[in-house]
Amino acid sequence: MSEAASASPLASSPASPLSSALTAPPAPQAASALLTSLAPLLHEWLPRQRWFAGKGRPITGFSLVSATELLPPAGSPGLLHLLVRTQQPPLPGPSSPHADPAPPPADCYQLLVGTRRSLPPALASSRMGRVTDGPLAGHTVYEGLADPRLAGLLLERLRVPGPLGPLRFDKAPEASLPAGLTPRPLGAEQSNSSLVYGDSYILKVFRRLHPGANPDLELPLALAREGCARVPAPVAWFRGANPDDPFEPFTLGLLQPFLNDADDGWRLALGALATGRDFTVEAYALGRATADVHTALAAALPTLTLGRPQAGLLADLMTERLAAAVQAVPTLRPYAGGLREAFDALRELGARGPIVTAQRVHGDLHLGQTLRGPDGEWSVIDFEGEPSKPLTERRRPQPVVRDVAGMLRSFDYAARHHRPWQPDWAEDCRGAYCDGYAAAAGTDPREMPVLLRAYETDKAVYEVLYEARHRPDWLTVPMAAVRRLAASPAP
């Protein structure tokens, strides 16, 4: 441990009765005792969390990747940092020639477990349960991020960077974090958890973990090096050791400036629709901002040319996703042929030679991933990509039209969210956004119609599957796009 970390008042106490149980990796007997005592509570608690990805499948077992004592439980409250793998049966689905023949790895989750002898009423909603045996016997355990005192410990760790067992805390060299900022949870997150500290910083805590560089840290760091002001620069972050591969650690959390005076793009769009206000000025500026981010990413990270093999693989994967969605949502079946034409056209385009440069992109761009400041300038946030996809896929270079297609679909979502539907509003915004993009980038995404149609079709198919599983009342929104895209003539 570094001198700075060992000097912190939060350093793990050697005298703690749990010290022998909380080494990394844990000794087999200690790990077994700790996990055995928590498993009955986790079986009930984990599936109820919004960020738990395995809903609808039984949990058949747990394994402990690491356990770290951030605050000794003897002091009440205590805080334990756990990385836990869950065993679950895989989702059924059609076979794919591109699928990995090996079974998918067990999902790994980051848990911050608070421990108290007695839980105060203010924390009752965060309760996991009472432990009856093992090293935590007699303690009530709960979601530690809900406790302001424990949430404050994370910021303190980031203020004093260094290692702590399998964890590593880092911050930007120029960063100076004040102490004592009051934390509060930000309830809007679904795939992760976020804390706001004093309206100055926001800490995103990643829940479902994948080994390797998380794009939500990797890309903002690269953009900061390029001087791109469109993305809040990382201030501090922490990682966890991966016992299976020391060169591919887990990204655990990211601290960035909190744009407290900025407005969410989705809410702005809905507000404009509700008042009948034009949104094309904002859409144009957002197109410029997207192009600025893409230009900086292309300068910061390697690019490649998308040729015949890559285009063919891309078309194959889109076709396979369509087949899986048709099997899961029979409503798609009548439109499958027309949708498939978009992917066939992409394959044919690639067969004629190199078609476009591929680079790192946002990967899940929509209005909800954007913020507009009081000066009218847009920022882009949340570079994690689609959390349901493997990290290797999210980090793969893609044509920039993937992000453009995502934003075009978002304008359509906003227009259809409003009653009555405003198709002209959506079309005007889509056009203004592409105009703004072209003005900043020098290339108009509408000049790549085959690629744009393929990506917009692929996105609409994804939306149908998502809405059918999670929000059936919204299924009409992507289905309207499916009908339009399936009937569209080839570019």
Q: Overall mean pLDDT score? A: 90
Radius of gyration: 24 Å
Low-confidence stretches: 1-25
> What is the end-to-end distance?
60 Å
Instruction: Specify the structural class.
Output: alpha+beta
Strand content: 15-25%
The strands making up the biggest β-sheet line up spatially as 6-7-12-13-10-9-8
Number of domains: 2
Helix content: 25-40%
Enumerate how many helices there are, as a single number.
13
Shape type: globular
Sheet with the most strands?
A: 7 strands, antiparallel
Count of DSSP E strands?
A: 18
Quick synopsis:
By secondary structure, the chain is α+β, with helices and mostly antiparallel strands. Helices cover 38% and strands 19% of the residues.
Write up this protein.
The protein is of the alpha+beta class and 491 residues long. It folds into 2 domains: 248 residues, no CATH class; 225 residues, Aminoglycoside phosphotransferase (APH), C-terminal lobe (Aminoglycoside 3'-phosphotransferase, Chain: A, domain 2), CATH 3.90.1200.10. The protein is 38% helix and 19% strand. It is built from 13 helices and 18 strands. A 7-stranded antiparallel beta sheet has the order 6-7-12-13-10-9-8. Strands 1, 2, 3, 4, 5 and 11 form a 6-stranded antiparallel beta sheet that branches. A hairpin with a 5-residue loop joins strand 17 and strand 18. Helix 5 packs across helix 10 and helix 12 runs antiparallel to helix 13. It is globular and about 70 Å long. It starts with a helix and ends with a helix. The N terminus is likely disordered.
